[in-house]
Amino acid sequence: MKSNILFGRIALGVYFIIFFGYLIGPLVVMGFTAFNSAAFPSITPWQCFTYEWFGELLKDERILNGIKNSFIVGIGTVILSVSIGLAASLVLTQVWAKWRSTFYTIIIAPILIPGVVLGISTLVFWRQVSDMFGGVALLNNGIFLTIIGQSTFIASYCMLVFVARLQRFDTGLTEAALDLGATHTQAFRKVLLPFMRPAIASAAVLAFLASFENYNTTTFTFGSYPTLTIELSQMVRYGINPSISALAVIIVVITVFGALALEVYGRRKKVKAGEIKKSKSLPGWMFGNIATILLVALSFAVIAMVFTSQSYSPQQCKADYREARDIETRLKIEALQAARAAANAANGDTTEEAGTDAPAEQGGASGAFGGVFAPTNLEDAAGQSDGEDSGAAAPASPFGGVFAPTNLEGSAGQSSGEATPSAPATAFGGVFDPTNLEESSGTSGN
Amino acid sequence: MKKPMIFSEFFRNNGVVMGSILFFLVAFWIIFLILLPQISMLDYSLHPNPINLDAGERADEYTLKNYKYLIFGPEGSSDAFNKVDLMVFVRTIIAAMAVTIMNLFLCYPLAYFLAQSKGGGFVRLLVILLIVPYWINEILRAFALRIIFAPSENGLINGIMMKMGLIDQAYDFINTDIALYAGLGYAYILLMLFPMYNVIESLDRNQIEAARDMGASWTRIHRRVVIPHAKPGIASGMTMVFMLSAGALAAPQVLGGTSSLWFTQLVYQWFNDTLNWQQGAAYAIVLLVASIAIVLTFMKIFKVNMGDIGK
User: Fold this and answer.
1) Looking at the predicted structure, is the pLDDT value of residue A314 above 50?
2) ipTM, 2 decimals?
3) Which of B137, B201, B217, B266 to mutate to probe the A interface, most A CBs <10 Å?
4) Do A406 and A417 contact (CB within 8 A), yes or no?
5) Parent domain of A168
6) CA-based angle A10:A11:A14, to the nearest 5?
7) B182: domain range?
8) Does B216 lie in the same domain as B165?
9) Number of compact structural domains in chain A
10) In a shared domain, residues B84 and B166
C-alpha cells in the first residue's frame, strides 16, 4: 500500500512537471531569448548576454504606435462591454423563466463564435450600414470597428462575471431603498452599484486584457489603426529580432507583478480581518505568504536589472563571439576547400594508379597531395602525408583515393582520430587499426 | 399579448430611466453586435463578388456560387471537387477535435487535484502560475513555441539535439505540424481546465469517500462518481477549446507549415489577399455552421444542455 502511494506521488509530480513545463516553459525560453545578442530570437546558439533588445524595442515606432492604439481600443471596449454586460446580467435575472434559456443562449453565443467570424461579420455589417448612409467615415474607422467587434464577445465574459456576483445580491435592499423613496436611478447608483463594484473592477480588468491580447477579431477590423497584437503578428511573420521577446518579458513581468500584488492585497485584507493568522517565522509585513516573498524578489530582480543595464556592456563579448565565429567559418571554408581538393586528388589518383604498382603509386599520391595542399596549409599537409606514409604507406597506396578525404580532414586540424577509422579501417583489418590512424593524425598535429 | 406584459413589468421593476437604459444596451448588443452582423455576413456570402462577375450576372442577385466554389472548385477545373480547400476544412475540424481531446486528458488530473485539495498557499500559487500564461498575448505564446520548435539550429529542441549529436539534420517540426498542434493545445488549455475545476470543486467530497469506503476502485470512482458530476464542465471546456481551435488564426499563422493551411487562413486570404469578401464570408459561414453543428451533435450524444455551457 505504501509503495502504491509513493508511486502515485511520483506520478503526480511527473505530471505536474510536464503540465507546468508545457505551460510556463515556452514563456521562460522566450524570456531568455530577450537577453541573447543573436539577431534571431533563439537560445541555441547562445551568444552574449545583452540588454540591447529593450533599447531596440523602445525605438520601434510601430510598436509604440500599436501600444497607443491598443490602449484606446482597450478603454473603449472596457466601457462598452462592461456596461452591456452589466445591463445584460440585470436583464437576465428578470427575464421570464421561459425565455431565460433562449436569452442566455443568444448572449453566451459570442464566446463560442470563432473570433474570425466575429471580425468578418462586424466588418461586413458596418460597411453596409455606412454605405446605406452614404459612407459615414466613423463607421469604417478601424478603432470604432475594433471596439464594436471585440465588445461583442467581451461583453459576454463581463456578463458571466456579473451574473456570478448578482447571485449573492439581496434584492430586498433595492426594494427597501425604493420604499424609502429613492428613485430607481438612485437605488441603482447607491445600492446596486456599490455592491457590484468588485465585480465591475474585475470585469473591467478582464475586458481590458481580453481586448489587449485579441488577434482573431482585430485582424479583420483594425483598418488603419493596427493594435499591438497586429504589429506583433506582422513582426513575427515577416522578419523578427528579439525585441519582440523583450516586449514579452515586460508583459510577463507586469502580469506576474499584478497577479502577485493582487494575491498579497487579498491576503492582507484577510489577515487584517483576522481570518488567517500571521506566520510567526516571517516578518510581519510579509504576512507569511509565498506570494509576498516572490513579489519582493521580483521587484529586486527588476531593479537590479535596470541598474546593471546602465553600466553593463556586451561589446567585448560580442567582439569575442564574432572573432570565434570568423575563425569557425574560416575553418569550415578551409575544410570545404580541402574536401573539394581531395575529391579532385582522388579522381587524379584512380586514373593514375589504374595499371601501376605500389612504388610508382606512392609517388603519384604524394604528388597529388602536395599539389593540392601547396597554397593553403603546406606544413600540415606535409606532416600529415609523411606520418601516413611512414605508418602504413605501402598497403595504403592502392587505395589512396579512398583515404584521401579523411587524411585531409585531419590536416584541416580537427578530430581526424575519431572520424577516420570508420569504413576504410575495417576494410583493411589490422593494418588500418584506429590507433594507427590516431597516431598518424597525432604526428600531423605536431 | 404576452409581450407588452413583460415590458411593462420590466419597466415597473426598473423605473423608466434605468429600464430604458438597460433595455437599450441589451437590445443594441443583441441586435447590432450579435444578430445583424451574422445575418449581414450570410447575405454577403450569397452575393457574387462585384469585381469579377460572370457574364450576365448582377451584383445584387442571390447566388450560391460562393458555396459551390468551396465544394466543386473553380468552374472548368479538371477535378470534380475542390480537393485542396475541402482537405483543409476536414483537416481543421479533425485536428481541432484531436487538440480538444488531448487537452481534456492533460487537464483532467490537474482539475481534479486542484478541486479536491483544500486550497492552501501552494494551490493558490499554482492558480497564479496557471493564469499568468493566459494573459500573455496569443501571438507571443505562439511565437514562444516557434522559438522552441524552429526547424534550424536556432530552434531550442533542434539546437540541443544537434549539440548533443543525436541528430545532424534539423528536424522540421513546423511542416510536420507538431508545432501547430502543440501551439493550439497551448493556446486554449486553460479554457479546458477552469470549467472542469469549477464543477469538480462543487462535488461533495463525501461522495468520493463513500465510494471508496464501499470498495470502489480508483478508476471506478472517477467513472461513476466524478465524471458524471463533472460532465457539464467537461462539455463546456471541450466546446470552448474545440470552437476556439477550429477558429484559431494566430497559432496557424505563426506555427503552421507553408504547405498545410488552417481553414481560417483560407478565410483570411480571401479577405486580405484576394479581396473577395463574398467568398470569404461564405467560407466563414461554413466554418461557423459546421463547428456549431458538431458541438450540438456531441452535446446531444452526451446529453448536455446549452445552459450548462459557460458556467
Assistant:
1) yes
2) 0.84
3) B137
4) no
5) 61-311
6) 85
7) 78-308
8) yes
9) 2
10) yes
Q: Which of B131, B150, B247 sits opposite A117 (nearest CB)?
A: B247
Q: Which grid coordinates are listed for A366?
A: 604524394
Give the pLDDT of residue B277: 85
The reply to whether A226 touches chain B by the CB within 8 Å rule is: no
Give CA–CA dist A214/A201, Å, rounded.
Answer: 20
pLDDT digits (tens, 9 = 90+) for B52-108: 777 667 777 788 888 888 777 777 667 777 778 888 889 889 999 999 999 999 888
Q: Quick check: is A52 in a domain? A: no
Alpha carbon A52 to chain centroid, angstroms: 18
- Judging contacts by C-beta atoms under 8 Å, the chain A residues touching residue B173 are none
Mutation target vs A (from B20, B39, B40; most A CBs, 10 A cutoff): B40
Q: How many domains does chain B have?
A: 2
Which residue of A41, A107, A251 is in closest CB contact with B137? A251
Nearest CA in chain B to A251: B136
A positions 395-434 inside 8 Å of B (CB): none
Q: Which of A311, A335, A369 represents a domain boundary (last residue)?
A: A311
On whether residue A28 sits in a domain, the answer given is no
Task: Provide the total of helices (H) and of strands (E) in chain B, helices listed first.
Answer: 15, 0
Q: How confident is the model at residue A26 (pLDDT cuts 50, 70, 90)?
A: confident
Residue-level length of chain B: 311
On whether both A292 and A328 belong to a single domain, the answer is no
Task: Tell me whether residues A44 and B155 touch, CB distance under 8 A.
Answer: yes
| Residue B55 falls inside a structural domain | no
Q: Which of A279, A311, A343 is the last residue of a domain?
A: A311
Residue B220: pLDDT above 50?
A: yes
Question: Does A88 contact B29 at a Cβ distance shorter than 8 Å?
Answer: yes
Check whether residue B7 and residue B85 sit in a common domain: no
Asked if residue A306 and residue A333 are part of one domain, the reply reads no
Identify which of A93, A45, A87, A216 has the alpha carbon closest to the alpha carbon of residue A146: A216
Segment A385-415, tens digit of pLDDT: 444 444 443 444 444 444 444 444 444 444 4
**Is residue A277 scored above 70 in pLDDT?**
no
**Residue B168 pLDDT exceeds 80:** no
Residues above pLDDT 90, as percent of chain A: 10
Tell me the β-bridge partners of A49.
A36
Question: In this model, does residue B140 exceed pLDDT 50?
Answer: yes
Amino acid letter for position B286: V
